């Protein structure tokens, strides 16, 4: 089945809109929209309007609504981060705190299972092995997630990644291919499986995806040519997915971390670490939780008007 062929047509949920406008302005004159009921208080005109959202333009379920007490995510929300380490594990911890029910995936199942032991809250989280560069593995994991939760996941963090340090003059084909397969093709495969299962579930399904790119996707970096190129691809892929899926009520955004204190960063030389800190106005590496908090915001309804955004979490590096 092709990706486009699996998408369903149709608008979002029935919503009620409330808008206040200064006297004399009328933003509801489009013939496509129903006429509003106006109320006057001497200064403002206020209108209430109930409408079906037009096809392809889903509206937030409750515009302006703040996060519900007890977390940003309802008990039925599920998420599929690559959560066995570093930023992914921190995402799991923050999302669980915010009420999400998690399916923690990683190529390293033991690491994903260990993440489960660190999660707060009483939700029934599960772990499953998934190799993001292998279509079969991705589709099996997505089916497992759907079966475990009796519904497809509605939130996704694409966090799996590898980094290998080599000058362009020394990098070989295998090194280049592995980086592109995990960091870029992996996001394509997982996003496709996630969106297909969510959209096959019915037209009221809403979702959000956050891709973990890198500030190096914008700047490039010596010794990290393949890695930086893959992350530049993630930025571009995020925007394409965002454009294609927004009308299907799935928002896609990405985060561009600077250097974050994880096992991946531990692979960098002392010279690279010191140089990066020197060029970072905050003068330190970031903590995985500082990225995870932004991811949680981008997954939540608090960012309901953000689509295709690339949010830098860098301590000011390369701003
Ligand atoms: N640490 C940083 O400085 C930094 C900066 C910018 C972006 N990032 C990105 O953040 C993401 C997380 O990185 P991290 O720093 O937490 O690194 P990490 O090494 O701690 O975690 C990476 C995780 O990806 C998993 N993984 C690797 N290959 C996989 C595959 N084929 N399928 C499924 N899972 C796989 C690993 O098992 C590991 O759990 C990566 O995409 C990375 O590129 C990291």
Shape: globular
Assembly level: single chain
**How much β-strand is present in the residues?**
15-25%
Largest sheet: 4 strands, parallel
Low-confidence stretches: 1-38, 43-69
- Helix count? 9
What ligand molecules are bound, each kind once?
nicotinamide-adenine-dinucleotide
Distance between the termini: 42 Å
Annotated CATH architecture of the largest domain = 3-Layer(aba) Sandwich
Radius of gyration: 21 Å
CATH topology of the largest domain: Rossmann fold
Mean pLDDT: 82
Please tell me the total number of domains.
Answer: 2
The class by helix and strand makeup works out as alpha/beta
CATH class annotation of the largest domain: Alpha Beta
What is the total tally of β strands?
A: 10
Give the strand line-up of the largest sheet.
Answer: 7-8-9-10
Determine the fraction of residues in helical runs and give it as a percent range: 25-40%
Element string (H = helix, E = strand): HEEEEHEHEHEHEHHEHHE
């Amino acid at each position: 089945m092709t990706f486009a062929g699996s998408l369903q047509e149709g608008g979002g949920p029935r919503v009620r809109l409330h808008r206040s406008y200064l006297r004399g302005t009328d933003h509801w004159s489009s013939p496509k929209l129903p006429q509003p009921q106006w109320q006057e208080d001497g200064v403002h005109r206020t209108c209430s309007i109930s409408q079906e959202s037009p096809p392809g333009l889903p509206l937030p379920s409750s515009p302006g609504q703040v996060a519900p007490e007890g977390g940003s995510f309802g008990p039925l929300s599920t998420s599929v981060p690559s959560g066995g380490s570093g930023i992914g594990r921190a995402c799991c911890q923050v999302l669980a705190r915010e009420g999400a029910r998690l399916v923690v995936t990683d190529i390293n199942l033991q690491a994903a299972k260990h993440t489960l032991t660190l999660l707060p809250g009483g939700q029934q989280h599960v772990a499953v092995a998934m190799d993001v560069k292998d279509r079969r593995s991705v589709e099996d994991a997505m089916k497992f997630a759907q079966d475990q939760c009796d519904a497809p996941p509605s939130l996704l963090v694409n966090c799996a990644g590898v980094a290998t340090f080599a000058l362009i003059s020394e990098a070989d084909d295998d090194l280049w291919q592995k980086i592109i397969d995990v960091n870029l093709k992996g996001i394509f495969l997982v996003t496709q499986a996630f969106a297909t299962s969510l959209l096959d579930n019915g037209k009221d399904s809403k979702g959000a995806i956050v891709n973990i790119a890198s500030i190096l996707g914008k700047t490039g970096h010596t010794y990290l040519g393949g890695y930086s190129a893959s992350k530049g691809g993630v930025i571009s892929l995020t925007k394409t997915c965002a454009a294609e899926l927004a009308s299907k009520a799935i928002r896609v955004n990405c985060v561009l971390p600077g250097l974050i204190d994880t096992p991946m960063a531990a692979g960098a030389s002392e010279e690279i670490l010191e140089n990066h800190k020197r060029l970072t106005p905050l003068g330190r590496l970031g903590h995985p939780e500082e990225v995870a908090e932004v991811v949680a915001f981008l997954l939540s309804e608090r960012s309901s008007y953000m689509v295709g955004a690339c949010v830098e979490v860098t301590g000011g590096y390369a701003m």
